[in-house]
Design goal:
The protein is of the alpha+beta class. The protein contains 22 helices and 26 strands. The strands form 6 sheets. Strands 1, 2, 5, 6, 7, 8, 9, 10 and 11 form a 9-stranded mixed sheet that branches.
């Protein structure tokens, strides 16, 4: 009965409206897209946007941003100064409208030739919303020969407007505030966010200087690109291109629907093709469009159309070959579009995407036309970049086929229906105890099997020379039964990081079936080569196993020394000398046999018994150095390999003589 009464209490008086600061403070995510750090950052960007709009209108070319030790932040510009005095038309002070009223501002008539034709600030929401969401906000404005001061605390004005006459002609606005922890769940603004956002803004506002100061660290940074997006692309590609850097600029007018007003659109485009770097960035009215929207759709459509048309006209497709996709172009494309419009349809308040139909259509048509002209006038560039797009396409298609193949080959349990030829498992299921010995050939396998502890030691033979995984492509690597069998036995999948094959990545160290992976080969040139090739395979396909110190090398003795009933094993020349010094009387010394010729008891004692064996842990403390050495010795750097042999080859002459 009580439950029914509660339901009946829902009547006319149950409807309430949020008023004043509560409209933002109780629902910040509605305005800023999030009540966490993303929303807090966006509240900062709203204030910054107003300063940028002033600079774009030609008032001021320098904006100063400071992050203070207590978590507060300030933005100072040299614009005309925010109008905060009495407004006869509205019969109110402008500071009340701008700082305390949502949807009040001077940017609503931008399509009618009024102030802020191409506005980044959101027409009266941002200034008020940021004030409402602040623990405090202090404002100082210079304009019309006066200094105006305001202070707000938790969305409420304190002390009204203070107006004092001042000398000089300087104008501008200074706003300092601290985001409120009661509004946002996270207010930890970091300097890296500001570095990123200010660099992006000077990219699309050519000649505008930003100064960023970090009070806590006593650091200061300055950002400026005199030629905007052209300077930025030059900096990023650093000359590593397969085509010239193209720059295009245009203006037009149009409407999103017949019954909608006509509006202005202007934009600049800069792009090139590179094999070393690829990125695509869109900006609209200086706002970074993380998700693109209209310009992204235009780029995808225009580039696929123009490049596909060129490939067909040049007969570069193979017979019955499928058409290119945008991902094939994107792999080598560096592009920025910086656009401005007097009417903008943002997907939401966070401005990460725009939806204007006219902008999409205008950009698509313009880019198609300009790309055709560019390809016609720059045939060498066109041939290079379209050939690279085809390489990207065919690499993608090969990767897709390989992904299907490798998924079939590497998945499944090592049961009777999914057996790996000649692999010998151990009995325990306890991964923390399990050891996999990778041995050289069938002959070594025999003595290792007889010499092992079958409770926790498994054996995987390498049949013949393993493929050099630094030189081979993934399609060839995964066509090798030796490699795929070994990967299946490991059980952890593969790590792929290249842009064309990243979808092949299936690595999960939690699926590794072994605690130790031990490479066990003869102590001769052939054994060293096989060991190196196995390490190379692990380095390229499962580098985390090396980083996590799961990989070991079983050290084989060089000499077997017999004195009476005692047998000694020397692993180095120094050990041999030390042993001989201790022996009194006659002794017999011989070079240690290959693994396949050793007795099982000797294998257990020297190579497999945890109490007496010697394992070298593969521990690349300097990953970059390891990569460099592997690439130099086994990759395509012929010049580097030749220089290395000339410098250090004499150290290894004795090994070639021993073999």
């Amino acid at each position: 009965m009580a439950k029914d009464n509660l339901k009946n209490d829902y009547g006319n008086e149950s409807i309430t409206a949020l008023k004043g600061a509560d409209r933002v403070r109780l629902r910040p995510s509605v305005i800023f897209g999030s009540d966490g750090i993303e929303g807090c950052r966006h509240s900062v960007f709203e204030i910054l946007s107003n300063a940028i709009d002033e600079a774009r209108e030609g008032f001021g070319d320098r904006i100063e941003v400071e992050l203070y030790s207590d978590g507060s932040v300030s933005v100072k510009d040299r614009g005309r100064g925010i109008p905060v005095d009495y407004n006869k038309t509205e019969d109110k002070y402008n500071w009340e409208l701008l700082f305390c009223e949502l949807y009040a501002g001077g940017k609503y008539l931008n399509n009618e030739g009024e102030n802020y034709e191409f506005s980044l600030g959101l027409n009266g929401l941002g200034l008020c919303a940021t004030q409402y969401s602040s623990e405090y906000m202090e404002v100082e404005i210079l304009r019309d020969g006066y200094k105006y001061n305001l202070r707000f605390e938790k969305g409420e004005n304190v002390g009204g407007l203070k107006k004092t006459a001042c000398k000089g002609k300087a104008t501008g606005s200074f706003i300092k505030w601290k985001p409120d922890r009661e509004v946002f769940t996270d207010i930890s603004l970091d300097i890296d966010y500001f570095k990123d956002i200010l660099q992006k803004q000077c990219i699309v506002n050519a000649g505008l200087t930003f100064v960023l100061t970090d009070e806590a660290k006593g650091e200061s940074f300055e950002f400026c690109y005199p030629e905007g997006i052209k300077d930025y692309i030059k900096e990023r590609v650093d000359g590593k291109t397969i085509s010239d850097i193209v720059y295009l600029k245009t203006e037009t007018k149009g409407r999103d629907r017949e019954d909608k007003p006509e509006y202005k659109l202007k934009y600049e485009v800069s792009f090139c093709f590179s094999n070393d770097i690829n990125f695509i960035e869109y900006y609209h009215n200086s706002s970074f469009l993380e998700h693109g929207g209209s310009p992204d759709k235009a780029v995808r459509s225009a580039f696929v159309y123009a490049i596909d048309k060129y490939l067909k006209a040049s007969n570069l497709y193979k017979k019955d070959e499928k058409k290119i996709q945008f991902s094939d172009i994107e792999d080598s494309l560096v592009l920025i579009i910086n656009s401005f419009s007097t009417v903008t349809s943002y997907e939401n308040q966070t401005k990460k995407s725009i939806t204007n139909k006219f902008i999409q259509e205008a950009m698509t048509s313009y880019l198609k036309e300009q790309l055709e002209i560019y390809f016609t006038e720059n045939k060498a560039d066109a041939d290079r970049l379209t050939s690279q797009v085809l390489v990207n396409k065919r690499s993608r298609e090969t990767a897709e086929k390989t992904r299907v193949t490798i998924k079939k080959k590497l998945t499944g349990n090592l049961d009777i229906n999914n057996r790996v030829e000649k692999f010998v498992n151990c009995r325990t299921k306890d991964v923390s105890r399990r050891e996999l010995y990778i041995v050289e050939g069938d002959s070594a396998m025999g003595s290792v099997i007889l010499g092992r502890d079958s409770e926790f030691q498994g054996i995987m033979p390498i049949r013949g020379k393993i493929l050099n995984c630094l030189k081979a492509g993934y399609d060839k690597i995964f066509a090798s039964p030796i490699i795929t069998d070994l990967l299946k036995v490991l059980g952890c999948g593969v790590e792929i990081t290249t842009k064309h094959n990243k979808d092949l990545n299936s690595f999960d160290i939690n699926n590794l079936r072994w605690n130790k992976i031990v490479i066990c080969t003869d102590a001769d040139v052939d054994g060293f080569q096989i060991r190196t090739l196995v390490l190379t395979m692990l380095y390229r396909l499962t580098p985390t196993l090396i980083d996590q110190k799961k990989v070991y090398i079983a050290e084989s003795p060089l000499y077997e020394i017999t004195a009476g009933k005692n047998t000694y094993f020397a692993y180095t020349e120094k050990e041999k000398a030390d042993i001989l010094k201790k022996i009194k009387g006659k002794y017999h010394i011989q070079r240690s046999k290959g693994l396949g010729e050793n007795e099982p008891e000797m294998m257990w004692q020297t190579t497999m018994n945890p109490a007496t064996r010697r394992l070298i842990q593969v521990c690349p403390e300097d990953v970059q150095k390891t990569a460099m050495v592997f690439d130099m010795l086994l990759g395509d750097d012929l010049k580097g390999r030749k220089e290395h042999i000339e410098l250090y080859g004499h150290k290894y002459i004795d090994l070639t003589e021993l073999s």
